[in-house]
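[step 3/7] fold_predict: job queued, chain A
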Amino acid sequence: MTEIIAIDTAAAPAAIGPYSQAVRVGELLFVSGQLPIDPATGEFAGPGVREEAVQSLANARAILAAAGSSMHRVVKTTVLLTDIADFVIVNEAYAEAFTGAVLPARAAYQVAALPRGARVEIELIAAV
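[step 4/7] structure written:
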């Protein structure tokens, strides 16, 4: 039976509910949606949505590193936005985080609201 391992790192914000920062199953890592919380301060990055996206991606990167993976091993992302008009700005930050010949598959959605009033949340699946 494949072991299920919770991943936890102080380099990313602690979960704000009953869930793990990430879960590893075999060679796959499922990273929970990352809000733009700076783990050093507990506050949102800002002032704009670009800074929020950069912080959300930095949080995801820290969790990937804690699990022995990296942004180059991400196979799927989901981007949640409270305003789809922010997609172009968030996409610029996203394009800086994901480079290389094979980019992850992605979905992006506008949602009614995100926890703590965030404007962006990013979750991902990666190979380990």
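[step 5/7] annotate
Helices lie at 49-66, 87-97.
Strands lie at 4-7, 22-25, 28-34, 74-81, 105-110, 120-127.
exit 0
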